[in-house]
Amino acid sequence: MTAVRNWKESLRDRMPESLAREIDIFETQIELRKAGKIGDKMFAETRLRKGVYGQRYDNGRRHDGEKTQALEFPCGDLTKGPETVWDAPGMMRIKIPLGKVTPDQLDLMCELAEEYSDQILHVTTRQDIQLHFIHIDDTPDLMRRLASVGITTHEACGNSVRNVTACQYAGVCNDQTFDVTPYAHAAAMFLLGHDDVQDFGRKLKPAFSGCKDNPCGLTTFHDIGCIAQVREVDGKPKRGFEFYVGGGLGAVPHPAKLLEEFTPEEELLPMMQAVCRVFARLGEKENRSRARLKFLVNKLGIEEFTRLVKEERTKLRPDPRWTAYLDDLASLDEKPLKPGSELVVDAGERFKAWFKTNVRPQAQPGYSCAIVTLPLGDFTPDQGRTMSDLAREFTNCSLRFTVDQNMLFRWVSNADLPELFARLDAAGLGASGAETISDITSCPGTDTCKLGISSSRGLAGELRRHLSVAPELPPAAQALHIKCSGCFNSCGQHHVADIGFLGVSRNVSGRRVPHFQLVVGGQWTENGKTYGLAIGAIPSKHVPQAVDRLTKAYAEGRREGENYRQYVARVGKKAVRQLIDDLTQVPSYEANPSFYSDWGDPREYTIGDMGVGECAGEIVPFVEMGLAASERELFEAQVILDEEGNATKAAERAYQAMLHAAKALTRERNANLGDDPDEIVREFKLHLCDTRLFHDPYVGDKFANFLFSAHGNGTTTSPNNATAHQRIEEAQLFVEAAHQCYIRNASPAS
């Protein structure tokens, strides 16, 4: 404990006393938990609010984009009781508001990665940094050292206001209405630890964007989204925001709804506070699967929710922090280190390729932003120190992590770009292709996430390699975005990609096979405006071939100026599905065992030996046929919605898909089961839900409730396109849950 005392003593005067006290308390809580004096539930929320997550480590592997490395860590689980082996590794999430980081802060995080983790720093899609394989006894030390350079992990996880994100180009963008940096920063500081954000049922994620058309802020799928607006008031320009609420991806994505067309700048923070208070008071607390703000907004309706928020606003006690920052909006302005200049040096073909994709002119003449492509969002401590040194030398310390999991240098004088590139390239950071098809976003997947089903990082790494050696794609295909999620929670943002992949698994002759649902029709522009839908599951090892076909068909079949979403809408999802239909087939284990392991992990994805039971001879074929029928119904629902625009018919077909899946699972328990929907739902509840056979270890009965809801009122209401789209999403999740229920109960060894 000597080191702990030394850090505590040496760093206390470098941080606010209140923050030092919070870390001291957390350190005490760790000791109490180890002694069994704090319960599991209380300690879980305590450590999550400090940014400390349990992580998956049973596989002992981490895919680094080039290979999979074995990791030597002892077993144990910090989420369990006092008998836990407390050397179990976890993950620490570090909040980086707006992704804005100083070189000194970056250097410190690099030190921590070397001393406490697996020497990898990971950039998330919310501009955070994550360190994996952290031991919980070390976390107070990390927190103190981070606090000494102005960084906190407080409320990085848990039922709290998460990191406030913002466009990485804010302040230097050619398209912005105004610089949102000071507003987003003020929101982050105001909401951090605020009394009114301590009683949520789930997390709340805010985001800011300086314009409406570009994807940098992604405000449409956040709980609170603010887009910069300027209006004329009394003959003078007035700053404010389009204020959105209730967006979110997750299992069933919801587009954010407009709360106010124009929220004046002085009302920004009190309106955010009022939203938080309404969410804390009326949001779901018991059923976590319905506890996000999007469900409350949908339940109440945007008009009623808006009324409640505005009523709450009138009840707030005045707070000087609401407007104090407006007196000095320029306090966070960045200044260049060198005068602006022209690019005058021809630095070779590698520089030209990098310049084409990784350099973006700033609004300020003579300066550019330079993107450092970080495959899988990862970089090493040595690479981090290189970036901090270069920021000091070339940019006056201006760095931001991006929502694409990259690093952005700002205020680079154009004449310095060749030297900056050469120095980055020497450190292994000179890859081109930023914001192109090979710059693939991915969540942690099965590497470290307990919810991961398929290896999204492994797939992203393989696709990146595959695309880098493939023949050069036409410009239209190069501009596509690919995003990979390891499960239905959409942490990789697959819903808004041109081509998205969602990790699932399938049972093939008694063995589990990693698959990915192909998601098409999403829209990355306009802050992530439109969400795609899954059109079929592809074995993981066939995904690169599927990408080849999809990009080739688009490049050859698109009309002038037609983006991928428009192309898919024109040709139809049925035609897109036909391109990859044959790739949905899985060869037998004997013919090609590689299909039965995931990317980056040579071990079998599952043991796969089916137990001998009553259903082995007759029921298994019926179940598989029924589940296949449910997937066909689901795909037809999408086609009906897309091609016919018949929301009622599409919603009904999605409901029928759920009934097919429910009947397939239930018929084993009731051989006399008929086709009456009331009987199917009743028997499904009796035999699958009440017995907890359908109960998912991570989401409980959430997906079963989609069927019950559709059966109870889905046919008595008149759906519109949005609600039909949501019903299809829910049906997709129900059918996938049915597959997993079948796997769990028909194949105990898997």
Structure notes:
- The longest helix is centred in the last third of the chain and has 26 residues, at 619-644.
- Strands 1-4-7-6-15 form a five-stranded antiparallel sheet.
- It is of the alpha+beta class.
- It contains 24 helices and 22 strands.
- 40% of the residues lie in helices and 15% in strands.
- The protein folds into four domains: 2-147, no CATH class; 173-332, Sulfite Reductase Hemoprotein, domain 1 (2-Layer Sandwich), CATH 3.30.413; 349-426, 2-Layer Sandwich (Alpha-Beta Plaits); 468-479 and 505-519 and 532-746, no CATH class.
Sum up the structure in keywords:
alpha+beta, 15% strand, 40% helix, Sulfite Reductase Hemoprotein, domain 1, 5-stranded antiparallel sheet, 750 residues, Alpha-Beta Plaits
Outline of this structure?
This protein is α+β, with helices and mostly antiparallel strands. The chain contains 24 helices and 22 strands.
The overall number of domains is: 4
Radius of gyration: 26 Å
Largest sheet: 5 strands, antiparallel
Which spans have pLDDT < 50 for at least 5 consecutive residues?
Answer: 58-63, 65-87, 607-621
Terminal residue distance: 43 Å
> SS-based structural class?
alpha+beta
Number of helices: 24
Strand runs, count: 22
Helical amount among residues, as a percent range?
A: 25-40%
Write the topology of this structure.
Blueprint: H1 2-11, H2 17-34, H3 40-49, E1 52-54, E2 61-63, E3 68-70, E4 89-94, E5 100-101, H4 103-116, E6 121-123, E7 129-135, H5 139-147, E8 165-166, H6 181-191, E9 206-209, E10 224-233, E11 236-245, E12 257-264, H7 268-282, H8 293-300, H9 302-315, H10 321-324, H11 349-358, E13 359-361, E14 367-372, E15 378-379, H12 381-394, E16 399-401, E17 407-413, H13 417-426, E18 441-442, H14 456-469, H15 475-478, E19 482-485, E20 499-508, E21 511-520, H16 525-528, E22 533-539, H17 543-557, H18 564-571, H19 573-580, H20 619-644, H21 647-666, H22 677-689, H23 702-714, H24 721-746
Parallel strand pairs: 8-9, 9-10, 18-19, 19-20
Antiparallel strand pairs: 1-4, 2-3, 4-7, 5-16, 6-7, 6-15, 10-11, 11-12, 13-14, 14-17, 16-17, 20-21, 21-22
Helix pairs in contact: 1-5, 2-3, 2-5, 4-12, 6-7, 7-9, 8-9, 20-21, 20-24, 21-22, 21-23, 21-24, 22-23, 23-24
